[in-house]
Amino acid sequence: MNTRNFFILFLGLYMLNIIHLQAKNQTFHGLQFSTIPTIWDEAIPLGNGIIGNLIWEKDGNLRLALDRADLWDLRPVKEFGSPSYSYQFVCNEVIRNKDLSKVRALIDDRSRKDCAPTKIPVGAIEFPISKLGKVKNVRLDVHTAVCTITWECGAIGKFFTSAIDKTGHFRFENLPEMLSIELQAPRFEDDGSSIQRVSAPRTHLLTRLGYKNGKMTQRNNSIVYRQKAYGKVSCEVALKWNSPAPQVLEGSYCITTQGTWYSETIQAADFMKEYAKNFQTALVEHTNWWNTYWEKSQIHLPDPVLENQWYLEMYKFGSASRKNAPPICLQAVWTADNGQTPPWRGDFHNDLNTQLSYWPGYSANHLEESRVFTDWLWKIKDNGEDFTRRFFKVEGLNVPCIATLEGKAIGGWSPYSHQPTTSGWLAHHFYQQWKYEADTKFLESQAYPWVKEVARYFENVSVKDAKNKRKLPLSTSPEINDNELDAWFQKTTNYDLANIRFTYTAAAEMADALGLKKDAAHWRSQLEEWPDFASDSTGLTIAPDYPLTVSHRHLSHMLAFHPFGLLDISQGKEVESLIKRSIHHVEELGNEFWIGYTYTWLANMQARIFDGDAAARNLHIFIKAFCSPNSFHLNGDQLKKGYTSFTYRPFTLEGNFAFASAIQEMLMQSHTGIIRVFPAIPEGWKEASFDKMRAIGGFLVSASYQNGKVQSITIQSEKGGILKILNPFTNQIEKRETTPGEIIKITPNTIQDRP
């Protein structure tokens, strides 16, 4: 191609891209309702990683439920100080006595009686709005993270949680008369108006925590509320408002804590005394942050339902995971606003929930937000090592599968709350953060030191079998057989084996990258001492000679395939057949005991085998059957149309973020080290595009797909290094060395460098 023709081609493609981006920028993504939601788990969500809001209507009042990510009851679990508290004790009871009753008494029972440790709510700001009349429109624009409510009388309310500090803001305009404001505190003392419920694992009233009600102080146009929690933890809310013009009411509030890892040195009341930003000033700063966030990556799909849901999920990701804040727990910054502790205590479930919540961050190019997870894992490392010494009686690092803000064990079903390889799956996130960022400093200072301790733990906790292969004394596969005796396996499960084999593989690769050849050789020799994955005619099994025989929500036995990529269809026909048999078998057993995240995890797997139609089908089922109108994942089938036998509605977020990850897997994959664009596009899609998705190696990739064909690919190399890509125009894997900042354009007729 001559220079003139290439320039014309490039200019044309550039202008098409500009027009396309402009069209996308005009597309509304978010939520639109004709009425204000009247159920807390259907509310409009706002958040900035450390504080959150749920906007809904309760008893004729507009309610801004308040949350603070680090507001936890962190009381210790006394039972875990028992001399019997050990892995060996569990092994003895399961293997020798074949009886779980003593294990349940030690680890499980208290979690059904005690409602703490737990995440706890902050309270709510309420405005009486009955006199405003009928609502015309409720709208959340995810690109600005602003909720706007319009009434037919002309009144308008706008709300946002500041993206840059720990404040929230509201403004009402065109008010027919001024609104009053109340700060509602949680009811920690029973005044006789509430009905005390019998203890149940998922319906705990706040009154059972044993707190005294907090202190509320109101002066003119300000309110300060202070609440003491357990131990040294407390919370403070400061709210102030004014009327800067006729028919206008605006205000702001701040939420702070004391006694946690994330607490401030200045408390809310003192902060708000000096806080002088008006609504508009704060709004400009807020929207600037969100503009930068959305510039990190964008997608365009011919399916507006899937596209809007992806933007909603990535909005929630940006709202729930921020630097210097806790990572995403079960409900993140949207704790239940129903007078109870949240479902499953709002804890950190590390047998799936935390992990799935961070899947989309890497390829969506939101590394600062995904780094929040590894920052927390690094922060809890000491507590994890202490847990490993106390319960497993060895050196190294495992992490409680059901954990508090500080990474300490809460308890629950023993096969999962004290799962023996949890840290292996968590190690995968250090690996991904390193591989996508290509950051050697992070590898040296955090990733390898963390993963190395996990590998050391596996070496110390394992034993040799009769064939001189390593095994675990007892193994599990979340959440197979629930909390029964046969939930513990004497043969190492594929789930545990995947965590172990991945950890040794990653540790060796990391050691090689750091020039630690002796370490790398040791980890590879350890890897060789473990067996291969168990399989039969159905595909991957739960454990040797133990196939999956019933419908199940958790796809733990296929962890080696997804997300780890230890098994991949690129490895040959035999492995491809194994993977496809495994997926087919899960589908064949039916969806009776699936829940929402099963559909989105399965969609990720289907995208990995390039079955875009199946992935899209399951993602649509997830949206229509398992999501609240505000997009929250409610676990059960809300349509009651047979998508599962579960029809309950506990809100958790992991299914949402696995949805976003599946869309990204459909658009681009790089887990094998080779970039593939549009690998799992549904048959009916004739056009799609994405901008600045991130591939392993620190490559930013943009691509367009029109008339059923790839049109162009642009790749920017952040750090330099070797680029490997499947060129869709030649169907050949092409490899080349790149320099930092280099931009490469691939079109049907050329590969062109751009300065």
Topology of helices and strands:
Elements lengths: L2 H24 L3 E4 L10 E4 L3 E8 L2 E8 L3 E2 L13 H10 L4 H13 L4 E2 L3 E6 L6 E7 L4 E6 L4 E6 L5 E7 L8 E3 L30 E5 L2 E7 L5 E9 L6 E10 L9 H7 L4 H17 L2 E3 L3 H17 L27 E2 L3 H5 L1 H5 L3 H13 L1 H12 L9 E2 L10 H4 L4 H16 L2 H22 L1 E2 L5 E2 L22 H20 L3 H12 L6 E2 L2 E2 L32 H16 L7 H13 L3 H15 L27 H14 E2 L6 E2 L10 E8 L3 E8 L2 E9 L3 E7 L4 E7 L4 E5 L2 E5 L1
Antiparallel strand pairs: 1-8, 2-3, 3-4, 4-7, 5-6, 7-12, 8-9, 9-10, 10-11, 11-16, 13-14, 14-15, 15-16, 17-26, 18-19, 20-21, 22-23, 24-25, 26-27, 27-28, 28-31, 29-30, 31-32
Helix pairs in contact: 6-19, 9-12, 12-13, 12-14, 13-14, 14-15, 17-18, 17-19, 18-19
Task: Give a verbal description of the structure.
The chain is an alpha+beta fold. The protein has a domain at 37-72 and 116-295: Beta-galactosidase, Chain A, domain 5. Helices cover 34% and strands 21% of the residues. A nine-stranded antiparallel sheet has the order 1-8-9-10-11-16-15-14-13. The chain has a six-stranded antiparallel sheet with strand order 17-26-27-28-31-32, with no helix packed on it. Strands 2-3-4-7-12 form a five-stranded antiparallel sheet. Strand 24 (668-669) and strand 25 (676-677) form a beta hairpin. Helix 12 packs parallel to helix 14. The radius of gyration is 26 Å and the shape is globular. The two termini are 19 Å apart.
